[in-house]
Amino acid sequence: MNAAAITDPERLWSAQEVLMRPSPVPAAAGVYGWHFKEAPHADLAVGSLLYVGIAPRHMANRTSTQNLRKRVRYHYRGNAAGSTLRLTLGCLLGLELRRVGSGKRMTFGRAGEAALSQWMAENARVCWIEQNEPWTMESELISQLDLPLNLDQNRHNTFHDRLKELRAQARQRARELPISA
Question: What residues does the GIY-YIG catalytic domain cover (predicted)?
Answer without folding.
Answer: 48-168
